[in-house]
Amino acid sequence: MLVIALCVQLVARVLCEVPPAPPQDIHVDNWLLKWTPGTEDTDVTYTVKYSSFDSEKWINVPACEKISSTSCDVTSLKAVDELGCVKLRIQAERRGLKSSQVEACSNHNDSCTPVVDLTAQPGSLMVHLSSDNDLAKEHADHAKHRVYLGKEGEKLKLFKDSVASVPINGLQEGERYCVKVQYIYLGYPVGLPSCTKCELIPKTSKSL
């Protein structure tokens, strides 16, 4: 009877197991990937994957495979892509169960990630983008910025592909809107997107 009881408990535990929460705040700063655990459990490991330009294949980063730490140096990936840029994802795992994969962004503006500045006005938002970057210089009009937009707390959606800065009109005053931007080349995403930035759309001043 004891054996049966233990077996029932084991089966119940397995059936009740759920994948770990995905990591959060995943960002790269000067080729050091960092993240915050999505759970307080200590038996969680993380695997980082990369994808090169115009490739749909995701490959494990050897130095960042099933590690327990919350950071990993990905400098070695500089040489694996023809444009010198890669996309990164990370996944948590606990006892064989895996979380969803989450895309990394970059706080370090370089040739692989756009420089993004926002200016908010009543009803509108200006996304300031620079065409003075290595990708644009080398590939002219084939290189663009892909702008994603959404209200704070909502999933960002593709807004527009553009070479230069993008004005966004018709926004709701008093709401916070968020933007992230990624380089694209020949329609394919290149490198890491900028980390999300948000601005409050001010209300129109009432004249006396």
From TrEMBL:
Annotated organism of origin: Sparus aurata
Database matches in CDD domains: FN3
Signal peptide: 1-16
Name this polypeptide is given: Uncharacterized LOC115588048
Keywords: Signal
Record-linked PANTHER family: INTERFERON/INTERLEUKIN RECEPTOR, PTHR20859:SF91
Any Gene Ontology CC annotation: plasma membrane
Any single Pfam family the record assigns to this protein: Tissue_fac
Gene3D superfamilies the UniProt entry points to: Immunoglobulins
GO molecular function, one term: cytokine receptor activity
Entry superkingdom: Eukaryota
